[in-house]
Design goal:
40% of the residues lie in helices and 16% in strands. The protein has 394 residues and is of the alpha/beta class. Helix 4 links the parallel strand 7 and strand 8.
Length: 394
């Protein structure tokens, strides 16, 4: 029986997916499997893969579908090897639709967020097996090095910024009717709590006389723009709330902020391997979610795993799952009181800190690596079984 499992990585912001893949690969040992991570941007990667393939691969995976479409002589590699490959998908299908529809019998889609699976089934209708996977983060080995009250960073926001005004100005080059859809949809999404914006965009298109379900390249372009603009507005709202405070904002893309009179410190992005130590030295980790209702960005869970408190916008998932956690502070990002709420949390005397144990237990029990890896292994087994079954007449 093959015991090798291979994760593929490519280019990504600050190496975060490569670091996450390495952490997951190390966790495979507890399942009696041997993890390998192959960087497709590194010369000679195929020479690394070849001896592993000869030994036998139980299954392979790649975040964002990296590695799913590899070919040999025009044929999909995984179909040729008859090895299951799991595309682990956490981004909206509108960003890279091709990642959600790889026409190979041994490639399956594993979605971390139900919203994106539903969008794919509604519009793309991929012939692949598609299923849900539990989101997961690695354990933080430095979580107990510093007691909460002794941590050097009071409030930290690790986020790549984006200028909403610049993005909106770029819409001037779009056709007038599409520009109207973008403005109408964004104005609605910007007034709503975090959630799925699919119906918002569709409603705006119909209100402007457009039915685009059969022209997905146009519809997905609209989805993508409204998605990015809404996320830019949300992140900017939190960043501006932090500016009057001696907080730390880490990441590129914040040139649009007015720093006159600001007390916050802006720092460049840090490599992903430095984040666990940063989180373990932070009292309040600030985060924002993508535009989905049924899930949470990995940053809050990483905060829980580091015994940090988390300040974030709320969606349906967090309201249901995190409401009882003493270390989670969910806020309405659209409220005019956001800055006051963030300041009140920053200045409040928490003594030795809120109880972080319930959130840590949730991170370990509900978001632990083994649950994710076991679910991928089960999906891989389903792919193998599906390809052994005979075709039945309908």
């Amino acid at each position: 029986m093959a015991t090798n499992v291979v994760a593929f990585v490519g280019e990504n912001e600050n190496g975060i997916l490569a670091e996450l893949s390495c952490g997951m690969a190390r966790s495979l040992a507890s399942m009696g499997l041997r993890g390998h991570v192959i960087d497709l941007h590194r010369p000679g990667w195929s020479d690394t893969l070849e001896p592993i393939a000869r030994q036998g691969i139980a299954f392979a995976w790649g975040y964002a579908g990296v590695g799913a479409a590899l070919e040999v002589g025009g044929d999909n590699l995984w179909d040729m090897l008859q090895v299951p490959f799991i595309s682990v998908l956490a981004d909206a299908p509108s960003q890279l639709p091709a990642n959600h529809c790889v026409r190979a019998r041994f490639v399956a889609n594993g979605y971390l967020f139900r919203d994106w699976l539903e969008v794919q089934r509604r519009f793309i209708r991929s012939p692949q097996i598609s299923a849900m996977l539990p989101p997961s983060v690695p354990a933080n080995p430095q979580r107990d090095v510093l007691a909460w009250a002794r941590r050097p960073h009071r409030m930290v926001f690790v986020k790549t910024g984006d200028d909403p005004a610049r993005r909106m100005a770029e819409w001037d080059a779009w056709p007038a009717v599409l520009r109207a859809v973008l403005h109408d949809a964004t104005s609605v999404a910007a007034q709503r709590p975090t959630g799925d914006i699919t119906e918002v965009v569709l409603d705006a298109a119909i209100a402007n006389g457009l039915h685009l379900e059969e022209r997905l390249e146009i519809l997905f372009a609209l989805f993508n723009e409204v998605d990015r603009q809404t996320r830019a507005l949300r992140a900017t709202a939190f960043a501006r709330a932090l500016l009057p405070l001696p907080a730390i904002i880490i990441g590129r893309g914040w040139d649009h902020l007015d720093l006159s009179g600001a007390r916050a410190t802006l720092r460049p992005a840090v490599p992903a391997e430095e984040l666990p130590a940063l989180y373990a030295g932070t009292q309040f980790l600030v985060s924002t979610n993508p535009n989905f209702a049924h899930g949470v960005h990995e940053r809050p869970v990483n905060g829980f795993a580091a015994r940090a408190c988390v300040v974030s916008d709320e969606n349906a998932f967090s309201r249901e799952r995190f409401a009882s956690l003493p270390s989670f502070f969910g806020l309405d990002w659209t409220s005019a009181e956001l800055e006051a709420w963030v300041a009140a949390i920053f200045h409040r005397n928490f003594g030795d800190g809120p109880d972080t144990t319930p959130a840590l237990a949730m991170a370990e029990e509900q978001f632990g690596p083994v649950r994710f890896l076991q679910a991928m292994s089960g999906l891989a087994a389903l792919v193998l079984a599906g390809n052994r079954l005979e075709r039945f007449e309908r």
